[in-house]
Amino acid sequence: MSTYNVAILGATGAVGMEVVRLLDERNFPVRSLRLLARKHDGRTCSFKRRQIPVLALDEGSFQDIDIAIFSAGSDVARQFGPVAVKAGCTVIDNSSAFRVEESVPLVVPEINGDLLHPWTTPGIIANPNCTTAITLMALWSLHQRFRVTRIIASSYQAVSGSGQKGIHELDSQIEAKQRGHDIRREVYPHQIAFNVIPSVGNLLPSGFTDEEDKLENEGRKIMDHPSFVASVTCVRVPVYRAHSVAVTAEFEQRIDVEKAIECLRLAPGLTVCEGSAYPTPIDVSGKDNCFVGRIRRDRAFDNGLSFWVVGDQLLKGAALNAVQIAEELVRR
Amino acid sequence: MSTYNVAILGATGAVGMEVVRLLDERNFPVRSLRLLARKHDGRTCSFKRRQIPVLALDEGSFQDIDIAIFSAGSDVARQFGPVAVKAGCTVIDNSSAFRVEESVPLVVPEINGDLLHPWTTPGIIANPNCTTAITLMALWSLHQRFRVTRIIASSYQAVSGSGQKGIHELDSQIEAKQRGHDIRREVYPHQIAFNVIPSVGNLLPSGFTDEEDKLENEGRKIMDHPSFVASVTCVRVPVYRAHSVAVTAEFEQRIDVEKAIECLRLAPGLTVCEGSAYPTPIDVSGKDNCFVGRIRRDRAFDNGLSFWVVGDQLLKGAALNAVQIAEELVRR
């Protein structure tokens, strides 16, 4: 079996740590692993029971690397993506930097993994936005059979979507409240402990945020469905991990709950909760699969379905999807 | 000025305590105040700087009472509502027991307070569901001008919507987590601390819950708009107080953001947050007004508007609305 030289950029971040763990756990054919971070702080990460030092990112970081998984934000991706490609590397980028560039495949392997074949290295492959990936994991199989026209979605997004600093902010605000101290805000513009914040991302002139626009823009590209419409409200909630989305979807074809459930049951990477069962973020944290429940005939649309989908946004919403892309690449 | 003998049933509950406080603060013309609870536990409540004992509810509790405000749940309301009416009392009931009975007015004073005139005591007046009242505080003024056809709404409901025991459950789960103890569940079927629960109320055969149905059923009655359609997902979130609702609404008339804001600004009891400002539950807790923000042209509907509305569900969603009904009754 072929083995590969792999680099992880942003290895000490919330997503990067999951990438390292998943490569280990899923036995990705790693020949060598290079861990990189923007700031070199002497940390190490465990991989195959060895401690691997995290190196400082520089222009030479991608020499001899076959596959680099980037989880370091858009600015770093824009700067070092081309550097890595020039060094002969295939970059799988978790940021939004390249997602809507026409020449860059934007991939959820269960949906459009075929775009990865044949593997024409070097190049950039984009990993979708977390809320988009999780929503599409339920929507795609329904779309294939019933043709979705538009969705209205409201999200319940965990603080780890903002990285380790989001987790720390929730922790420290909870502790401050317990001790009767003043609550400090550094990451979010409002208190997140015991609160919800109806604004994720940057506000655009349309009144939507860039985060809210991703579901439509990326959804169109991933599903190859240019007329897909998504009206989204993204809300941060005081949950550590796993994003939830309440979705109301309209379809071209007649849909009913039984047929929808039949369809969802066959979707790879998705677990269906039926009857009075439904998923919550705590149950789904740490799970590879996305979970869908509260499946019901919608009453606002003739061919409408409402459902609730939850996914670990560090896994299927980020690290797992990136590793699955890498796995798809090396499967010949 | 006339004064009235007033009774508060459920005086020691989360809503009842707010009713007592509001009657005091708003100088309701109280001649005598009788505080009642199902269980008599020797507690007192402060009113006009006097401690008033809470009495045990019995068949004779409503003798000589003019107005009784009930916040004790549907079963108690069904049992003691008729008793109070027979004793010559006007009952303002916070439960869902009588809301959709044709002969019972269901009132948000800013919307249909005219139903209360002339005051034909005795009788029952129903106070709407909290999420319904808060949503309609923003929707009504838009409906008057643009005629709403259907809405899709997702809620973010605070634990005090389940009464004091909801607050206690969140508190004790947070404390258990901080101390590394096991997390116990008594009120909610899933952990609520650091989680969200996409199920409020009882599941119906339709797949919606009775809580989700209230927005359509009660909205139709309050707005006198029998064809109004509401597709709702109700979600409990780890917030102490104030419910939030993400609403996407379709209208008959052409709507734009400027006209919508103009309209919302004139709505009584509503504060409009514009531009990058938006309300969060913590900001709105303890406030009489409901707050609306994130007002934007929706993209799923031609004449669509999306917005985010937050209200203190113990106040406008319950106690304040009940006291406003009482105020409307005595205003001749």
Provide structural commentary:
2 copies of one chain form a homodimer. Chain A has 332 residues and is α/β, with parallel strands linked by helices. Chain A is built from 9 helices and 13 strands. Chain A has helices at residues 14-25, 74-86, 109-112, 130-146, 164-179, 210-222, 257-265, 281-284, 315-330; strands spanning 4-9, 30-37, 44-47, 50-56, 67-70, 90-93, 123-126, 148-156, 229-233, 243-251, 270-272, 290-297, 304-311. In chain A, the strands form 2 sheets. A 7-stranded mixed beta sheet of chain A has the order 3-4-2-1-5-6-7, sandwiched between helices. A 6-stranded mixed beta sheet of chain A has the order 9-8-10-13-12-11. In chain A, helix 3 links the parallel strand 6 and strand 7 (123-126). In chain A, helix 1 (14-25) crosses helix 9 (315-330), helix 4 (130-146) packs across helix 6 (210-222) and helix 4 packs across helix 9 (315-330). Chain A is globular, with a radius of gyration of 20 Å. In chain A, 56% of the residues are buried. The mean pLDDT of chain A is 96. At the A-B interface, strand 8, helix 5, strand 9, strand 10 and helix 8 of A face strand 8, helix 5, strand 9, strand 10 and helix 8 of B.
